[in-house]
Design brief:
By secondary structure, this protein is α/β, with parallel strands linked by helices. It has two domains: 105 residues, NAD(P)-binding Rossmann-like Domain (Rossmann fold), CATH 3.40.50; 73 residues, Dihydrodipicolinate Reductase, domain 2 (2-Layer Sandwich). Helix content is 26%, strand content 21%. It is built from six helices and seven strands, in the order βαβααβαββββαα. The chain has a three-stranded parallel beta sheet with strand order 2-1-3. The protein has a two-stranded antiparallel ribbon with strand order 4-5. A hairpin with a 2-residue loop joins β4 and β5. α1 packs across α5. The radius of gyration is 19 Å and the shape is elongated. The two termini are 27 Å apart. The relative contact order is 0.15.
C-alpha cells in the first residue's frame, strides 16, 4: 500500500523536486498539492510532469480533504519563523552536550541587538535568507586561538533535501507521535 502524500509548496524548488521523486518511485502516491499562485491549475502541466493529474489547491485545508497519510510543507521561506528547523535542532543538540560560554554575552555586546542573532539553547544562531544562501548550514565552534567550521552547501539544487524528506515520510508508519529531527530516524536507539 502506497503512502498518500500532500505537498505544500509543490511548485517551489524543494516541492517540485519532491513531486518528481514521488513520480519516479513506487512507495508514495501524491494525492494533493498546495501552491497559492498556481491554485486551480493542473500540477502535472505546471511542472511538465504528464503522469500527474492533480488540481493545485489554494489552501492547506482544501488539500487535506484528500486525506493524506503525510503532509509535507515546503512553503515560502517568508512564512517560516527564522532560524530554520535545522539550525534550531543543531543548537538544541549541542546545548544538551555543553552550554556555550560566549566571550562577550550577547546582552552585554555593544551595537545593534539584531546583529547578535537569536539565542537558541545558549548558542547565538543567525539566519540568512539571501541569494547564494538558499541551501546551506554552517556551524562555527570557537575557543581562544582556534575555530572549527562545519559547513554543508547544497548549491542551487534542492535535490539533497529530497532523500531526507522522503525518508521521514517513509518512516511515519514506524512510530506514534511527534519525531523531531532526521537524526531521530537515522540513529534509532
Amino acid at each position: 500500500m502506497k503512502t498518500k502524500v500532500t505537498i505544500a509548496g509543490a511548485t517551489g524548488s524543494v516541492g517540485s523536486a519532491l513531486v518528481a521523486a514521488i513520480c519516479r518511485g513506487d512507495e508514495f502516491e501524491l494525492v494533493s498539492a498546495v501552491a497559492r499562485k498556481s491554485a486551480g491549475k493542473n500540477l502535472g502541466k505546471v511542472l511538465n510532469l504528464p503522469l500527474i493529474d492533480i488540481e493545485i489547491s489554494k489552501s492547506v485545508e482544501d488539500a487535506l480533504r484528500a486525506k493524506p497519510d503525510v503532509f509535507i510543507d515546503y512553503g515560502k521561506p517568508k512564512y517560516v519563523q527564522a532560524p530554520s528547523g535545522t539550525a534550531r535542532e543543531m543548537a538544541d543538540a549541542m546545548g544538551d552536550i555543553k552550554k556555550p560560554s560566549p566571550f562577550v554575552p550577547p546582552d552585554e555586546a555593544l551595537g545593534l541587538k539584531e546583529a547578535r542573532g537569536a539565542t537558541v539553547s545558549g548558542a547565538q544562531v543567525h539566519s540568512i535568507r539571501s541569494p547564494g544562501f538558499g541551501f546551506s548550514v554552517e556551524s562555527i565552534f570557537g575557543l581562544p586561538g582556534e575555530r572549527l567550521v562545519l559547513r554543508h552547501d547544497a548549491s542551487e539544487s534542492a535535490e539533497p533535501y529530497v532523500y531526507g524528506t522522503l525518508l521521514a515520510a517513509k518512516s511515519i508508519h514506524s512510530f506514534v507521535g511527534l519525531k523531531r529531527g532526521i537524526d531521530s530516524l537515522l540513529f534509532k536507539e
